[in-house]
Structure formats: C-alpha cells, structure tokens
Amino acid sequence: MADALTVSDLYAGYGETPALHGLDLALREGEVLCLLGRNGAGKTTTLKAIMGLVRATSGSIRLGDLELTGLPAHDVPRAGVGYVPQGRRLFAELSVAENIEIGLNARRKGDAVRQRVLDLFPVLRERLKQQAGTLSGGEQQMLAMARALCLEPKVLLLDEPTEGLMPSMIARIRDTVSSLRGQGVSTLLVEQRVEAVLPVADRVAFIDNGAVREIVDVARLRAEPDLVKRYVGV
Q: CA within 20 to 30 Å of 210's CA: 20, 36, 124, 149, which one?
C-alpha cells in the first residue's frame, strides 16, 4: 500500500522554541492513523507543521509525490489536505451554508461536492440558514469536518474531534471517519483518550518529546495495554 503522506526527519517549533525533533511518520492510503501522547508531546504541532502553520526548520513533508515543506499555508489545503483544528475554528457569525461555501471555494468545488458532504451530515441540511455559533458542540464539529471535506482532500487531519462531545455524537464522528476510509481518504487523528481511538484507528503512533517513538497496529495495542501507560501515562 502506498503512502498518502510522508513526514521525514521533521524539525519544527515556535520561534526559538523547538517542538518537533526529527519526527518520522507515514500515513498509508485509506488508513486511519492516530497520534497518541501526553499533553505537550507534539501532536497538535505535527498537524500544524503539515499545514504550514508552524514553520519547519528542516525535514520533509510529502503528499504523495508533492513536497509540501515550505509551501505557504494557504496552498496546503489547495494541494488536498483538509484540517479540522482543535476548537473547530468556525466562522461563528456566518451561516452553516456560508461556512460550507468557504470550504468549497478553497479548491473551487461545486454543488455536487456540497451535496456529497451534506449526505454525510444530514443534520446540517436542516441548519443551512442557522448561524454556526448557535449550533450544538456536536453539530459544530460536523460542520468543521464538512467544511474540510469540501476540499475533497486526499488526507484529512483531525485534532481531538470528539473532545467534549456526548457519546452519541462521538459515535457519529467515528462513523464518518470510517465512511471516509471506505472512500479512500487517509486520516491522521489526534486524540487524548485511547478508548476514543480503538474503534476507528488502523494503527497508533505514540509521540513523545516531539518524535514518534513507536507505531503499532490496533490489534497489538489491545493485546498490550501497557503501551498506553508507557507513552500516555494512563
């Protein structure tokens, strides 16, 4: 199976403060790979570095054969990487329809893509005229994912998508990620809680102090729960 996204020997940080120290990661086509680690381990920074929101000081980030390292941040989504940041970052004063339109415009997608995205999140069809800021937490997460999927991304980056959601909404988010895998979308998922990961991930990458220490299949993780204690401290 080919790699959809390859991160090699990546160093990145904030100003003079390094956060990633030679990070290596390969996301396969059509898989869900979860990044697990303690707070401050570098999970969110990894996603931001891929998106060009944190500057890489050395190393390589490749989407298939395309080198992303050094691209302006606004060109990374156009290349085919969708990003749902922690906290969703919706345009709260705009309507659901307007938020979706912003996603469509990034890669000049039209109504066929809009309809496919709304098919994934039927509740948003009923909320198109509603202000995004007035949606429930779960509906806001769906809208953030819908906006990212309007790019028709090859790779989707999700930063703690189940945070603060009710169990029924968490199940819907998981179902959506599984559905996207069936469509060939590769997903890099940051989570804090291993129980949120096991039902949907194919592999788990443990990150510590800005580097990936070990990547394991979910089956092995189920068989060796001490791995979680070692890297996450739970």
A: 149
